[in-house]
Amino acid sequence: GLRELGELLYATHTGTPTDSELLLEKMREIDELKARLRELEGEPIIHLICPRCGHEVQPEDVYCRDCGEKL
User: What residue ranges do the domains of the chain occupy?
Assistant: First the structure.
């Protein structure tokens, strides 16, 4: 992501040139990730919680992975 891009740019600055195609590829990856984040903004986040112990469970769980309660 951004960290990798920063490291590549800094390497170029300090004398180890980075292939411009690699830089463009990293920037495109970041653009795609930011676009996906914009799509997800505003969508509700659903957390399923065990009614017995309050542990977060997954939609496919039949039993709580923490306390064993049938869901």
Answer: 2-40, 44-71
